[in-house]
Structure formats: structure tokens, C-alpha cells
Amino acid sequence: MTPLSPFEARWPAISALLDEALNLPAPERASWLAGLAGEQGLHREALRALLAHQDKIETDDFLNMLPRLDTADTTPPLGRLAAGGSVGAYRLIAEIGRGGMGTVWLAKRADGLLNRRVALKLPRIVWGDSFAERLAREREILATLEHEHIARLYDAGIDAHARPFLAMEYVDGEPIDAYCRTHALPVRERVALLLQVMAAVGHAHSRLIVHRDLKPSNILVTRDGKVKLLDFGIAKLLEGDSTLRTALTELSGRALTLDYASPEQIRGEPLGTASDVYSLAVVAYEVLTDARPYRLKRGTAAEMEEAIASAEPRLASDAAAVPANRKALRGDLDAILNRGLKKAVTERYQTVDAFAQDMTHYLSGAPVLARPDSKRYRAIKFVGRHRLQVAAGSVAVAALVAGTTVALWQAREAGLQAKRAQAEAATAQAVQAFLEGVFLANSGDQADPTKARETTARALLDRGAERIDAELRQQPAARLRLLDVLASLYDGMGLVDRQIALRRQQLDEARRLSGHNSDDSVSAMAQLADALATAEQRSEAASLLREAAAMLDARRDDNSRTRFWVDLMQASLDRRGDPAHGLAATERALAIAKRYPPDAALLRTLQVRGESAVFVGEYEQARQAFAEKVRISEERAPLGANDLCETYGSLADALVGLGQFAQAEVSQRKGVEIARRRSEPLKLYNSEIQLAELFFNTGRFRESVQAAEPAWRWAHSADAAAFPEPAHYIKVNYAAMLLYYGRPQDALAETDQDASLTIEPALASELDLAALGIRAYALTQLGRLGEARALLDRSRSLLRQANGKLSPFWTDTAERAWLVASGRAGEALSGFRSIKAAQPATPGAAESVAALTDAAWLTLEAGDAAAAQTQASQALAAIGAGGLADYQRDLEARATLVIGRALLRQHRPAEALPVLDKAVELHCAVYDPDHSPALAKAWLALAEARGALGDPRAGDAQEQAHRIQTESTAHPLTYSRVRKAGDKV
Predict the structure, then answer these.
(1) According to DSSP H, which parts of 661-723 are helical?
(2) DSSP code, position 888
(3) What's 759-826 look like in SS3?
(4) What is the 3-state secondary structure (H, E, C) of 10-55?
(5) Backbone φ and ψ of 549, nearest 5°
(6) Closest residue by Cα to residue 175 from 220, 211, 145
(7) Alpha carbon of 685 to those of 665, 668, 676, 733, 734: distances in Å?
(8) pLDDT at residue number 400
(9) What CATH code is assigned to 173-385?
């Protein structure tokens, strides 16, 4: 048997990774490729070459390589095609369509490069050079049309038999008209499907691409109710720039489908987006009525052309076969479809977006543009949208006609409802006028226009808050509304103190206006509690929420919107202090929120639910919550768009908890890319530092330092002065990454000016404790134990004064290192065991491996080499069994070094030598090769083993350790040296 080549031996693994890459959108493949690690990283270059080849297939490069054709008409042997045959690089599987233009086959690439099925379109006629020219002229279609509801064109060309082909994304779906009939969808659900179609067509029109052949068979609906549009731009590729009858149409039939053609297509005029609007209106008409717009006696093409050009279509409500649909179509939908089917381009909707807007207004009950803008019509639409508010009025009219005495009561109720509606309108007008006055008056208040432009949003908000009482003294409802609006704006800017002050005013105003137990008052209590919780005033927040819940319980309100807000704020308060209780509260809130259309409140509920689940270790629940939030945010943009990058970060955290590190990295990289696309620097830097933290937490310290560098540069720039808290967060985390990578001197320099060194104890935060711990750890590694001890004492003092509100993690970690360095490893081991015994069992293998590795190191330093060897061996066994070795390389390196050193302590240098060789290799891969104290220790242990065995290379190992120790205690790296080191690795 011929032995496999190295590439053939690796192909199964490469093929599996290639399939994973091809399932990602093209823009995300580069970051996925860069994230490959371990054994997968060995295949990076092969995958890069294959993906580069794929890019040529999926972009417009292939259009420039089409073979030149003779101009004489040629009839390819399409009739000889059969399953198993080939066209170009594609093997035919089964014929799935046949029409005037040719056939469509289900196919896949025959060369095995891409394991993907395609719909292969085979035009019946080759049109010589003009076809190739049109392909080249339309190549921009491929580069710009990327939309969730548009099937992609992957490939196009002409095979060795002169047969043109177009390889499209294969969609397993049903034509939209058949799908609606099969599932007996009501009118509103059919409109929702049509809105998906319109979104796709509008996306193409925004890129100046016209479909020209919209029809139900080109609009498929998948099993999960998602629309996919086929053949975008294909009509133009096949037909050219004119729709006139030519030799082309005479030989092969029109590329367009006559039943859905626009009047201008029939007349052979130049086509624009208005032609698609007309065709889309015909499709909508058929989907909503199960009938065509025109009644034809003979059914000939000539009669159809005449109808399209001059006949008026039937009203949709008259054409519908189902009585219930007739009623739903009558009125607005009749008018919408009638406008879309206008003969004159100028009388139709000018854009598909305008068409879609009217459809959306129909669903929401708002007035549509296609109907006359009369007072009576608007009144009818108002009643439709506010049935509860005006129901009494409608009953009163009916009662009056009947002449009953109930009419007087109903009329009085109608009058009350009308007054409420007028009051609501007056409130809205007052709020609008006030806000306009605050923002527009800025220019008039400032003599200097430049100064007016430079007025900050904070200054405008403060000005508005000051003017509320003076200008709205006689309008308490407007004042209440504005207090809520301005408090929310302060919340968005992170100005919690100002938010709390306005929330208190809001609560007082609500109680004066509506009563102590009113919905307005209870809601204001919940909002104030949320602001107080943000400011860590948790006791008052909890008290307010208990009082609010008791009010709702007293009136047996367990499912109102007010109850929703109380439950949500309770969950938000509890997510850290009592996350199990918070999780139950989110379940109640979520049940209420899902009764309404998706909105910002639902997204916040999902976020709080996910965070609560993370805190109790229910990572699958967290993943589901964050994934649902991502889905809603992406499907209903711009809803949720503002924090979508953060949501991807939260999803990554949940995936890390599940041990799904590769998926977590993909999610976090998506968050970075979204922040970069939206040009939001602060969010971008936050997402980048979160990606760096993901690398840090999985032992990829070199990558963490490199990923954090852009955010670190910003944190030290002049722009960061306006955002001290995010900048501080980035600096402290970057210092931790430098420390663990093996640059203690740089970590120390990064914290030289940290606020934690001088901050008042009452103001100390988690970040301050972390900075002190990182700095103490760095000083310990550099041998400056006295300075480290002083910082640890300060940390312990701050922790005592915080009375359990701050985490001791960094202090404990640094103190263990200090005790070991001070020769008191036994105390460090005892303290470590006490901490672990007090902690609840942590889910996930990664945490147990880390604990085993730490215990093995401390046990070795405390003098029990045999026990340390056993614990480190258990850690390595767990790494091997867990299937997550690529994300535990640091733990593998540390555990291997413990085993090697333990063998040396037991006077077994021959056994220790290969283990220490491996430990040095692993340390070089994980830590800074020039500065890491951990690597220096590995080299020293290797030198000892070699020396004990008389190996002449012992001096080389000793020299390496000395070189690193000298470098690690030298002056901190400058930024240029950091870049150079990063480039080198």
C-alpha cells in the first residue's frame, strides 16, 4: 500500500475544519482562522490557502476568467444531462426545475473542495460573447448582495462543452404562495412574510440592483418561516439591458415571467426599481388573495400584455376566495395593493421601503399613505389602535341609536375617554415643546456659535432638569413624564447621582398626581430602586421593591406591566446578592414581557436572566437567554443594536462556562466586529479587552496582551480623560495580562500611578483591590518583598473596612505568592485549603484543574514532593480527559514543571529530565520567552537535572535562566519594544 502523504494524512482534520469555516460568513473567516490553536493551529496555512481559493470562487474574480465564446449561436447538449453527470466543477444530483430559460439541478462540487450543495442553473441557449460580457458587467451583484433573505450567487461560468451555468445557494423551501395555502395562513401572517420579501428587495435597491423577475416561484419560504429570494440579477444576466423582443426572446422565451411583468417591461422601456415595486405588488396580491389581479377570457400572452398595459385590476377584497380574507383585505390592503399596481410609475410607491412602511402601518393599525388623509379616516385608525380607550364611546353611539337609557351613561364614559385622550395629547405636546426648547434654545442662549456647538449633553440635561419646575408648574403629567425621560438619559450617561435625584422627584410627583398606590407610583418606586442598586444603596432599593410588591399583591396584580417592572428590578437587584431568587424573578418578568411585541424591556429581561444564571452556574440557561437576545436584536434592528456587541460578549461568557471555548471566541470576535462597524470607540475598546480577557482566562497570555494593546493605547491617550472608569478598568486588566504573561516589571510600571495607592478606604472598589493585588504580586516576583507586604497590608485593611462587599481574590492570590517567596509555603497551603473548603463546588473541569495545579505547586513548595507529584499528575490526566487542552496550556505547563521538580526533590533526575524538557517547551509556548520568571524557574530546574546526570548542556540551561532573570528585573519595556516583541512572536 502506498503510504499517505503528510497532507493526505491531515486531510480528514482539515476537511472538518474547512466545513466549519464555510458555515461562517466570509468576513468572519479570517478571525476564526487566527483563533485556531493547538493541533488545529497546525492546519492554519493549509486552511488559509483553501479559503483563499474559495474566496476566488465566491467573489467576482471568476467573472474575469470566463472563456471567450464564438459569436455563432450554439446549442449545448442539455438534453444529455443526467444525475451523476458533470457541468464544470459540479456533479449533478437531481433535476429540481425546468422552464423557458433552461433547467435547474441540485448539484455539488465534483472536486471535493467544498462540501456544499447548490442550485445549478443551466440556461438553454448560449448567447455568444454578449453573455460573458453581461456576466462581467453584472459582477458587482456578487460583491454587494449579502442579506439574510437573499439566496447568494456563488459561481458562474462556461464549461468545456460551452454550457453556461450559474451556481446559486440551494434553498430547501416552498414558493411563498403555495406555503401560505398549505399552512392556511391568515392575512396578517401573509403580510409578515411579504415584509421579509420587501426587506430583501429594498436591500438590493439600495445598492442599485433590480430583480426584474419577481414571482412566487422565486420567493421560497423555509420550514422555519424564513423567506429567501432567488435569482437576484439573473434576469438581467440572461436578458441584457433591454426587454424588447429580439432574437433572444424569440429563441428562448422571455427571461421575465409575463404574469408579473410591469407595464414598462411590456412596453420595452428602461427599467428601474419601480418595475420591481409593480411586480412585488402582483406577488403580494396573489399571496393575499390566492388569485391574480386580472381576469382573462382567453389566457393568451397578447391578452395578458393588454391587461397589464391598460386594464384596471380587481379589488383584492373582491378577488379573495376565502370570506375571512375578503374582510381583512377590504380598506387599507385594497388601497395599498391598488397603489402598488398603478400603471404610471409616478403614481406607484416610489420605493419598496415606502411600500413596506404602509404594510407595517396596516399591521400596527396606523394610517397608511395609500388612503386619503381625511379626518374621518384618521379617527377610524385612532379607534383601531386604541380600542380599550374608545370602546365606551362606540358602545354609546350604538346605544343612542337604539334609544336606550344606557346611552347616557355610555356617552358620559365616552366623554371621559375623550378628555383622557386630549390630556394625553396635551402632555405629549408639552413634553415635546419642553425638550425642543431645551435643545434648540442652546444656540440662542449662546452669543458664540462655537460655544453653543461645544455645549455638552450633560450641560443640556442639567439645564433641562433645572427648568422643569419653573416651566411646567401647571402641567404635572408632563412634568412626571419628563422626569422619567431625563432620569433615563442620566442613566445612559452613567450619572447615577443625578438619576437618583430625579427618580425621587418622579416618585413624589407620581404620588401627588395619581395616589400612593397607583401604577405610576409603583413604577416610579421600581425605577428608583434600580438606580439605588446601581449606586450600591441596596438596602433602600430592597425596601422599596418589597413595598411595591406588597401593593401589587394587595390588589392581586400578578401579570400587569407594572408587576413586570417590579419583578425585573428585583431580579436586577438580586443577580449578584441572591442570584437564585433573581432567576425566579426573571422567569416571572419574562412571562409577562413575552405577551407584548419584542421591545427594549424584553431585551433587558433576557440580559438580567442570563447574568443571574451565570452567577448560579446555570450556564446553559444563560446561553439560551443571551442567544435569544442576540436573535431578537439581529432580526429586529435597530432594537438592541446599541448593545449588541456587549450581548455577544455576555454570550461568550456563558459559552466559556460550558467549556465551549471555540464558540465563545467566535461570539466575542463578533462583538468586536460589530463595535468596529458601528464606529463606537468606547464599545470597541471594551469588546477588545473582553476578547483579551477570554484569551487570558484560557491561558493564552501572549494573545491576551496583543489583543488588549489597542484598548491599552486608548486608555493612555488624551481622549480617555473623559472616561476615567473604563480607562482604569483597561489599565488594571492589561497589568494582570502582562503579569501572567511574564512581564512583572511592565505590570508594575502600569500600576505606578494607580488610584488604589492613595484612595480613601470608603471609596475602594473591586478594581482598586485588583490593582493592589496585581502590584503586590509583581513586586513579589521581582524580589521586593517588603514593598509587596506593605501593599498586602493595605489591601487587607480595605477588605476589613468593606465588610465583605469586596472580593479578596487578588489579595489572596498575591499573598500566597508572597508567603511562598518568604519561605512560608506551609501557611500559604493551609490558607488555600481553607478558602477552597469554604467555597461551593464550582461546575466545570477547568476550575478543578486550576485548583489541582495550584494545590500541587503549594504542596511542593511546602516540602511534600510525592503528594505534589500525585496532584500534578491528576491535573494532567484531567486536562487530557477533558478535551480542552488547547485552552489549558498554562495549567499543563505548570503541572508538568511541578512533576519535574518533584522528581528532582525525590532524587530521580533521570526521570525528571524528559519531564523538565517538556516543561521548558510548554513554558516557551505560553510565557514571554525573554522575561518570564516562571520560564526562568523551568530553565533552572532543567539545569539542575542535567547537572545531576553530568549532562554538559547544564550550563546552557543555567545561562538561559540567568539571562531571563536579568531581563525580567530590568527597566520596563517601552511601547516600541512591546510592539517588537509582539511582532516577533
Answers:
(1) 661-677, 681-697, 701-715
(2) -
(3) CCHHHCCHHHHHHHHHHHHHHHHCCCHHHHHHHHHHHHHHHHHHCCCCCCHHHHHHHHHHHHHCCCHH
(4) HHHHHHHHHHHHHCCCHHHHHHHHHCCCHHHHCCHHHHHHHHHHHH
(5) -65, -40
(6) 220
(7) 16, 12, 9, 12, 12
(8) 35
(9) 1.10.510.10
72: nearest Cα among 160, 123, 131, 121: 131
d(CA 311, CA 301): 14
Cell numbers describing residue 394: 362606540
Residue position matching grid coordinates 462655537? 450
How is residue 562 written as a grid cell?
407594572
Residue 547 exposure: Cα atoms within 13 Å on the Cβ side: 17
Phi, psi of 67 (to 5 degrees): -65, 145
Report pLDDT for 77. 45
Residue 923 CB burial class (10 angstroms; 0-12, 13-18, ≥19)? buried
Q: What pTM was computed for the model?
A: 0.54
Would you say how long the chain is, in residues? 985
Instruction: Tell me the three cell numbers of residue 678.
Output: 458601528
Which residues 6+ apart lie within 8 Å of 277 measured at CB? Answer: 340, 348, 349, 351, 352, 355
Distance separating alpha carbons of residues 382 and 386, to the nearest angstrom: 6
For the chain, the domains span: 6-57, 59-170, 173-385, 388-443, 680-742
pLDDT value, residue 864: 97
Please give the full DSSP string across 908-974, using - where no structure is assigned: -HHHHHHHHHHHHHHHHHHS-TTT-HHHHHHHHHHHHHHHHTT-TTHHHHHHHHHHHHHHHTSSPPP
* pLDDT at position 714: 92
Residue 495's SS3 state is: coil
Sheet order of strands, 90-98 included: 86-87, 90-98, 102-109, 117-123, 164-169, 153-158
d(CA 585, CA 608): 10
- Amino acid occupying residue 51: L
Q: Is the peptide bond before 638 cis (omega within 30 degrees of 0)?
A: yes
Q: Residue 779's closest CA among 606, 969, 919, 940?
A: 969
Top CATH class of 59-170 equals alpha beta
| Other CB atoms within 10 A of residue 473 CB | 9
Helices (H) and strands (E) in the chain, counts: 47, 9
Hunting for cell 500525585 — which residue is that?
870
Q: And the C-alpha cell for 974?
A: 517601552
The helix or strand, by DSSP H or E, that contains position 655, with its residue range, turns out to be helix 644-657
The H or E element spanning position 189 is helix 187-205
DSSP 574-586: HHHHSHHHHHHHH
| Residue numbers of the chain with a pLDDT score lower than 50 | 1-5, 57-79, 126-129, 136-140, 142-143, 235, 237-255, 373-414, 416-455, 843-845, 973-985
3-state SS track over 391-453? HHHHHHHHHHHHCCCHHHHHHHHHHHHHHHHHHHHHHHHHHHHHHHHHHHHHHHHCCCHHHHH
Please name the amino acid found at residue 16: A
Using the Cα atoms of residue 406, residue 409, residue 411 and residue 417 in order, give the sign of their dihedral: negative
Whether 59-170 shares its CATH topology with 173-385 is answered no
Q: Whose CA is closest to 915, among 951, 876, 953? A: 876
Continuous segment of H or E residues that includes residue 90? strand 90-98
**CA–CA separation, 626 and 622 (whole Å):** 6
DSSP class of 728: H
End-to-end alpha carbon distance in the chain:
41
**Cell numbers found for residue 668:** 466575542
- Report which secondary-structure segment, H or E, holds 827: helix 825-838
The label of the residue with cell 491528576 reads 874
Q: What is the pLDDT of residue 90?
A: 87
